[in-house]
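Let us practice reading a record.
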Amino acid sequence: MTKTALAALALLALAGCSRQEPQVLGTLEWDRITLPAPVAEKIVAIDVKEGQRVAAGARLLQLEATRTRSQLEAAQAQARQSGEALAELRAGPRAEQIAQARASLSAAQAQATEARAYYARLRPLGERKLVAVADVDRARAAAGNADGQVRAAQAALDELLHGTRMERVAQGEAAAAAAQAQAAVQSATLDKLDVAAPRAGRVDSLPYKLGDQAPVGAPLAILLVGDAPHARVYVPERLRADVKSGQAARVFVDGRDGSLAGHVRMVRSEPVFTPYYALSGDDAARLSYLAEIVLDAPVDLPAGIPVRVEFVR
């Protein structure tokens, strides 16, 4: 075998050994946490700067609390009122109310006795035509009305003696629970006016400035969190079948020598871009799938740096 042939074989062997794994491109990112505005209130204090590292629970900024605190006090007062109303229902009628009902019953009974006696005296006179028939009829009606008043007074007394209905107590309990829940909501909202970091991280953005009034749900602060960043890349359709969650990968950062070890955290099942006309043949090559590769070791690198990723097979 000639030297030329040997050299060619050596080159082929080196080419086979240096075969690169498939690569994909993307950027280096951190997990982001967005802290929305709980209410539309003015920013009265900002305690951090963009790029600053913060611990979990550290206050980032503060919103005006005057109106929310007043709403909380009103809700707490309503809760106390509902609680007292429920206690009154559970306690039932006072002894004084029962005594008053007994007295009303006694008065009605006395009036009924008098009315019946008057009718009893007047009826024989009417039969003898000594008094007008109309007078006898009025006496009979008055006696019947007095008997009705007795029955009404007796029923009112019985109602007090039987106590509060279970349904009314249940309604009072529901009203008290609703008032307490509303007070709890206002209390939670008041606590959220001191916007704090839910996790340790770095302040990436403060979209609003001191004195601004952000609408409800608008991002007041954006944090970058996590021990290590991740590479967000787009896997082409021809590589999708070979990329799985948990698979090892090597991440190459532009401007940094060597590679960083990582593993695939997730691969989206739906493509990022889907052609409207077909999903087969040559058109399928247009598909790409979003994937995230988490670095295995913590590194302090900024977000947005271009990276390329090789998947280890």
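A brief commentary: The chain has two domains: 20-64+201-311, 79-181.
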